[in-house]
Automatic annotation (TrEMBL), chain C:
Species this protein is from: Lachancea lanzarotensis
Segment of the intact protein contained: 1693 to 2204 of 2219
Organism phylogeny: Eukaryota, Fungi, Dikarya, Ascomycota, Saccharomycotina
Origin: domain of life: Eukaryota
Name of the featured protein: LALA0S02e06282g1_1
Subcellular location: Nucleus
CCR4-Not complex component Not1 C-terminal domain ranges (all copies): 146-512
Amino acid sequence: TMPAEMAAQLESSLLNCPDSLDADTPKLYQTPLSLPHPTSIFFPNET
Amino acid sequence: YGLKALLPLIRREDQSADYDPSMTLGIDLTPVLHSLGISSDANGRQRVLDTFPSPWVETSRSEVEPRFFIPESFTKIPNILQSGSNNPVFNSVQQDHAKISLFQDETLFYLFYKHPGSVVQELTYLELRKRNWRYHKTLKVWLTKDPMMEPVVAPGGASERGSYVFFDPQRWEKCQRDFVLFYNAIM
Amino acid sequence: TSQEKMFLVFTEWVKLLQRVPDDDIKVTVFIRQMMDKGVVNSTENVIQFTKAAIELSVGSFKESDPTSEVFIAADAFSKLIVKLLVLQTFTDVSRSEYLRLMLSVITMVFSEDQGMVGNSFNERPYFRLISSLLCQWEEASAHSFMKIQDQQYRNELVEFSPDFYNIIASFLHAFQPIAYPGFSFAWITLLSHRMFLPKMLRLPGKAGWSKLVLLFTDLLKFMAQYTKRSDVPDAVSVVYKGALRVFLAVANDAPGFLVENHYELLNNLPPVYMQLRNVILSAIPKNMVLPNPYDAELRIGDVESCQHVPNVYYDPVRDLKNLKKPVDNYLRIPSASLSRVVSTSLFKPGSQKDTGIGYDNVSVDTKLINAIVLHVGIEAALEKDKTTATAIFNTKSSYYTLLASMLHDGNTEVRFHVVQAIANQLRYPNAHTHWFNYVLNNFFLSEDWGNNTAEIQEIIVRTLLERVVTNKPHCWGIVVTFTELLRSSECSIMTLPFVKTVPEIEHIIKHL
């Protein structure tokens, strides 16, 4: 039987499970053109 | 070790007693394979691990950037965008703002849809308007008047009926449509 | 303090990377200055600097507003590791030792953090560090380090790259879920990472396979440890679902890996995971087309690919231990005393908990049984190539009689695990599938079992049936063998007592 503490650690790991955004390629340097900018709310906000 | 051992698996009613059927007898894998992008016909075999977002569907919330390589020929293009013999760059608002007007419509549409919420989306919006394109707020597409035909303004002046050219971002092409255009729907 | 100096240097590095592209000359100058000013010029300083960098990376994650860029420091740190590996010349220590040193420091900080009282531990910054390290290394090494001008240098780095992945793999082995349950989900995500798993599968000369089998075994051992019959903790069933998808992706992209490593993977797969077992054993070499296993005209001996001996990546003879001699001697010159040595060595001291379908304990050494059965199959296939088919497709051959004696002299449990081990070899059309199909058919029809006949037949039917009633995929060899038994004119399964006494089973077999 899994010890209670281990089950708790496993649970917290499940809660913090990395998703595909965490696994995406790092982008440290943002060129000024791709810096965030307040565009219209009507514009598409997903690529 | 005999056949009777299989009964708890096979009998549906008392499943809870012994085994979790989804892990013993398993499940129909069709939806799982589909979620992986694996087509059932073997010869259509596309590799999936190179773009594997995450082991679970629930955490595969977005596509992940796969391994890619930018060939020299994509970066070493002299004499375009006023770059002279150097490589073209397009990464600063001050210097490169003017270059926007050198781009074709499709390039502007690409930049607009590819970089949401960024400076470049704003710049392409302004440039497309200059070219008499208008952005439709609810359809979320760009359109412009069909030069061959003058639209008819509706009485009351809130809208017009005419023939317009739309840019369809799904099919990535311009298409002509007859359409009733409400002036408050575009920007 | 020197630690604060290290913090300062790393902070400057993070700021720099946000202001200039990483191939900007200023980045290289920064690394140069770090080397010239002695920030990383001794093991002691590398340890101090690495410790500072990982602590700041994890600290900034914990303190950042979750909606902001919480991984900037971790990404900058992974970029720094890659730059230090690529830009430095390594004389007194090797690149591998250098990378191991940095990863060891990270492991220590990770262990302290994970072991901290309570569950404040968060796996995500450590996940992101390794994930970004893999991405940055991929970018640096693209097209054989195209960005490096110096040819000799490029060769050095190209040669180091497989080591890079195997070193990451060894640290993943250290971070495995049984050791660090709080890192389990990050661990599975790293194992299947798009910049890791495909690379390890495709390193030249299968250089990544040993470590990869080790990692998959770690995963299966963890699942086996905590998969009881009914109350499987939710988190473990989520682990299972993730593992199933990863195995399906591997079966799709690199079936050869499962084809050649089925022996080791099955040694560690909990027997209750029958569909996962089918997925692993149903893998077939790329571009192989399977003849229809239900075809009544099919003669397994006529299938061309049954002449080919499948490659087994890890030779089971290594698991025979001190039985290697008796087994090989028996295969050369059979004798009752040798077969007795084998049959009496199959038991484990005391019984072990192991959740199976219909049993909770195991008192035989299933790994040893798997090794003997597959070893005999490998030797038989080699013998056929050396001499003739009749030398092994013959119930008097030592290959056949050794397995028969294990059944004859064994108890019910031994018989069950021997038949399971044989069924694990009934895969796609190959020389092993062909021979074990012959063995199982003859076991089923043999009269040599005396009053154990019914028991052995029932074990054979159960073993085949459980793999056929499980959801697809089904192994070609299992279907062919079971279809032959169902059609057998010499013995109609429907009339066997152990089938007639269980209506549900009788109904299923009639349907089949």
